[in-house]
Specification:
By secondary structure, this protein is an alpha+beta fold. The chain contains 6 helices and 10 strands, in the order H-H-H-H-E-E-H-E-E-E-E-E-E-E-E-H. Strands 1-8-9-6-5-2-7-10 form an 8-stranded mixed beta sheet, with helices on one face.
């Protein structure tokens, strides 16, 4: 049995990357290992480290080397299309169902606030599930509609992404702050294209971000509508 006293820091990092796809800062790993009791099974340590990393802000805990982050010219709209090299871990900061207008999304939120959902064209009452803190999860489950999302890498760079084809686990009911590993994704005019073959969801959640997103989602949609109308008025 391999234990915490029998593994080096580089070996632990390698195992964490191969087992969980995670690439934390060496300083984070060093602090983590020094805080653990000696003789703990390495598999248990990997699980604990992964849980803490997936609940963290990657801008504070993950590797920020060039190979682990977005290129500086990613948002250059003059570059029609290219495929990024290697794998990059992101956290999702926002998600929007672009198959519906923003007003439709607001109406759907208000219906859920009234305890209503839809089944086909029929309006039904939705009974909150006490075992699930997010009672809107069932109503927001993925149904094949495309989504737009805001991604952030370990350096804090943000980029929009579009679901090019249906990706399992990507829905409005997902946790904000969830980590996603993109392997050689295609970028078209500064937008990341998300496909099942390039995306791997790692899990996780940032409690503060998730709470804020839920509480402010309707207000943010209204603000986006107002901004669009103002832009049209100026043009």
């Amino acid at each position: 049995m391999i234990t915490s006293t029998a593994i080096s820091l580089p070996q632990f990092c390698d195992q964490l990357r191969s087992a969980k796809g995670l690439t934390p800062l060496r300083t984070w790993v060093s602090d983590f290992l020094s805080s653990q009791k000696q003789g703990v099974n390495i598999n248990a340590l990997i699980q604990t480290a992964a849980f803490r990393l997936l609940a963290s802000d990657i801008t504070q805990t993950f590797d920020q080397s060039v190979r682990s982050c977005l290129p500086s010219d990613l948002t250059n709209g003059q570059i029609k299309e290219r495929r990024l090299e290697g794998s990059i871990i992101f956290q999702i900061l926002n998600i929007e169902d672009i198959s519906k207008s923003r007003w439709q999304q607001i109406k759907a939120i208000e219906a859920l606030e009234r305890g209503e959902g839809t089944k086909g064209r029929e309006i039904i009452r939705v009974v909150p599930d006490e075992s699930n803190e997010d009672s809107t999860a069932g109503a927001n489950a993925s149904s094949g509609e495309p989504h737009k999302f805001l991604l952030q890498d370990a350096r804090g760079a943000r980029v929009y992404g579009i679901e090019l084809s249906d990706v399992q686990s990507l829905s409005l009911s997902m946790n904000i702050g969830i980590k996603i590993l993109l392997n050689k994704p295609i970028v078209a005019r500064g937008v990341v294209l998300l496909e099942p073959t390039t995306a791997r969801f790692l899990g996780g959640k940032i409690e503060e971000l998730h709470k804020s997103w839920k509480e402010n989602r309707k207000a943010n949609l209204k603000a986006a509508i107002e901004a669009t109308e103002q832009d049209r008025g100026r043009s």
